[in-house]
Design brief:
Length: 377
Amino acid sequence: MELSLTDIAANQGSLENLMGHDRQALETFFASIGEKSFRATQVLKWVHQQGVYDFSEMTNLSKSLRSKLSSEAAFVVPEIINDQVSDDGTRKWLLRLEDGNSIETVFIPEAGRGTLCVSSQVGCALNCSFCATARQGFNRNLTSAEIIGQLRLANQLLVSAENERPVTNVVMMGMGEPLLNYDNVVRAMQLMQEDFAYGLSKRRVTLSTSGLLPEMQQLSKDCAVSLAVSLHAPDDELRNELVPINRKYPIRELMKACREYTRGLPHQKITFEYVMLDGVNDSDNDARKLAKMVGNVPCKINLIPFNPFENSGYSSSPLSRINRFRDILMQKGIMTVTRKTRGEEIDAACGQLAGKFTDRTRRTEHLQQIQTTGDLS
Ligand code: SAH
């Protein structure tokens, strides 16, 4: 049985939340209470594979150990406060965290696989001009427990007699920039790959980043999952505007880092994401420049039709334009697919995730000022 947030609150501060502990962290925990390290794998299986969070039900642990554990630790996951299903089967959950903030997680079912889109932060500190999450500002990083909790909850809610492991793929493409929450994201991704937990291969876990170079380099050493990079423009001038982190990590260096990421990994390709913005980045010339730019990187390109939100100031390129853009890239020998928009009518599509939280930056205030006064200062 799962402990509710109120149960936990009753124990205020006295219980350690072990939900986000990977195998190593759990082994350290057990050593600290004088227990053998194999307890870690036993407990991992109960929690992450069976969905049993209550120590009293972990029957392969001695009674005395169970009661000792119950007085010291707990497994806590976020609370589901809204559950929406779209016409195409895409499902979106609004999850409430212990501090009252909320985040969103999306499940996308497809033939033969189920992909979970996981959030890494409450809001986002980056300021990409076409993203709804960015407009809401930033509150904080998610803990590893809150990150892996999204996968645990999804598996629990989706499991059925026919389908024991409904989530077959994870994409770190929800709210936030995962590489700005490096340690917690890596710990959660270790758990995703852990045989005694979810057993997902590196190929089935994808991290999407706007291109933080030092962290990309570190990731290739610590946890070389599949990498998606949000590119969105064929030159620095436009990318500075759309993805402002480009001012710090410009395209040339980004391409070099992408080549290096794939170097140690035969068969690994970078997925470049490219949002199709009508009249902004979608001309034939843009496609040719893009092809040239990524030419030396083992890669494929995902074209993403822009998903609209209020006051975005952008619209999506029409399908005929997207197809033409794709054809040019394909003619240049670059594998290109157009990402199917899923869950749009429940605002679950790329860039539409919002959640509810307090902005701790002054971004929302600043935006309101611009909207009401037109003052850009
Ligand atoms: N911060 C990470 C993770 C976000 S992933 C990153 O930048 O990669 C979400 C993907 O959807 C990114 O490629 C993002 O640029 C894209 N996206 C954001 N807003 C969008 C919108 N309104 N329509 C379509 N795609 C969008």
